[in-house]
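Predict structure. Chain length: 138.
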Amino acid sequence: MIIKCKLKLILKPGKATPTPPIAPILGQYGINLMNFCTKFNFLSKNINFEFIHVKIILFEDLNYEILLGNESLTSYIKKFLKIEKFSNKPGIENKELINFEKINQISIYRNIFEKKKISSVRKMVVGTLISVGINYDQ
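Prediction complete.
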């Protein structure tokens, strides 16, 4: 089978509906939204994460394959640091300050899923922390 395109989404497991943000993304490729939602909800019904990464491989004949990934980094950081809500104005109103040891713990956990060097994963974690309004101590 010839691959037409690969799509990446971050969705709530078991709660996909044929409305935005799913509908505009998948609709432009001709994917049947109801079939996708029922298939995705069935595959992800036992997953207890807030958000997960989803890869969709679309073939030329409009068949597709759904690959479920791991938990999103921001929801893992929320759980790890026991934060309910991130800053509404990152960079201006920062929530808290974390040390390098916690960044390292998050990076080591994340490195299990990512096939990258630990230093690259650490940079990704630091960038995510900055973008959600959490400062770090060097």
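Summary: The first helix runs from residue 22 to 27.
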